[in-house]
Amino acid sequence: MATVTALYAGLCAILLIALAARVVQFRWSKNVGMGSGDDRLNQVRVRVHANATEYMPMALLLMLIAELNGLGALWLHILGALFVFGRLLHAFGLTWGKGGYHPGRFFGTAISWTVILVLAVIDIVKALGAA
To answer: What parts of the sequence cross the membrane (predicted)?
Structure first.
């Protein structure tokens, strides 16, 4: 069973829905059917949600592969918690920075990329070791 990955997949799903809800709330309040309605804040909200949908699947897939190949629960929790923290930091940073530079955006992205790269290397090493 992949219970650790299941935990972080659930947390990521909740975050993804929360980010989507911010976009939907804006669209309803401004009667915008699609897109951002040329509103800068909603462009940022749309981008924050899109960015999460771009990175979450790969991170979770790599985590699942690592878990199924025997990576210890402690490492999975460290990497999973870091990834969720990075995604939260990115979302808040991009929003607070109004789409520009903000330390939260930078560090959130850096953490997310680092977790993905670490998991990728772990998976590659495990695959080569099994061959």
So the answer is: 6-24, 59-86, 106-125
CATH number for the domain that contains residue 111: 1.20.120.550
Cβ distance 90 to 110 under 8 Å? no
Number of independent structural domains in the chain? 1
Residue with tokens 């025997």: 70
Q: Is 67 exposed, middle or buried (0-12, 13-18, 19+ CB in 10 A)?
A: buried
Residues 48-72: tens digit of each pLDDT:
999 999 999 999 999 999 999 999 9
pTM summary value: 0.91
The pLDDT of residue 30 is above 80: no
